[in-house]
Amino acid sequence: MRISNPKFLLFLVTFWGILIAFAPDTLTNLIDYTVFSLLGVLGAIFANSTGAGGGVVFIPMFNKLGFTESQAIATSFAIQCFGMTAGALTWFYHYKLEREPSGLWPSFFPVIKVSAIASIIGLWAVYGLDLAPPSSLHYSFSWFSLLLGIGIIFIALVLKPQPLHQTVQPIDWLMICVISLFGGAVTAWLSVGIGELLAIYLIIRRFDVNMAVAVAVIVSALTVWSAIWQHTLVDFNVYWQVVLFAGPGAIFGGVLAKAIVAKLSAKRLKIFFAFWLMVIGAVGVSGG
């Protein structure tokens, strides 16, 4: 069933209403959190149209609101479970209905399988071994995003178009595994990383930019779902009042993102992706 199906939407609204009705807080207090619905929409639109996780929107905002680091990361993961899942399902249906029948994106599922497994291993290696993040990780990741954004704009505007790659070469499999292991670890620390790194690599290697985004979104969704148990069952730090409103907003944003991407040419999508990388980098560097 597609998430835009009226029956599914009715179920979602009903389920959300039940959660509010049984929430251990007064309706008056909960109303104060409705503004986070917009944050969920915004984060999911950028996340699911570029492949970079919504945490790049959520974490800076949560830091400004005085969340603890654990609360910010856990709440970001929880919201992304809504938004990235909506985006992943939307991209999956796009592949099944429009790409697979034409024989396009032959590497779609193989890349997702390998990358998701490696990413989850990297993420749970951090949790299982209790690995602390490098002190300069966030700052370095921000510079990396900024410079890569500039590089992708150069590729899109200056270099002549070349034929797209359809098949994954042995060196690509090696790089995808390494990038995904590292990206999973970074995601454990920052709640973002795997989608951005994977999309960047696939775009640079001249795979279809829409496929790069779709793969990154789906791998990100699988990664955040594997992570949420650490922040709920093991060590609960989710700011649930925020998720109660930002989560449904993120679902809407995740669906809307695909419609936005459909309006962009491959070149414009690359530029949009690069612009978002530079925004991420600039915000991180200025806050570093």
**How much β-strand is present in the residues?**
under 5%
Order of helices and strands: HHHHHHHHHHHHH
End-to-end gap: 44 Å
Largest beta-sheet characterization: none
Number of domains: 1
Morphology call = globular
Gyration radius, rounded: 18 Å
How does the helix and strand content classify structurally? Answer: mainly alpha
The total count of helices amounts to: 13
| Spans of at least 5 consecutive residues with low confidence | none
Query: Helical amount among residues, as a percent range?
Result: over 70%
Count of distinct strands: 0
State mean pLDDT (0 to 100 scale): 86
Question: Would you kindly provide a written description of the structure presented here, covering whatever features stand out?
Answer:
- The chain is mainly alpha-helical and 288 residues long.
- The protein has one domain (6-287).
- It has helices spanning 6-21, 27-31, 36-50, 55-64, 69-99, 108-129, 137-157, 170-190, 194-204, 209-227, 230-234, 240-262, 266-287.
- The model has no long low-confidence stretch (mean pLDDT 86).
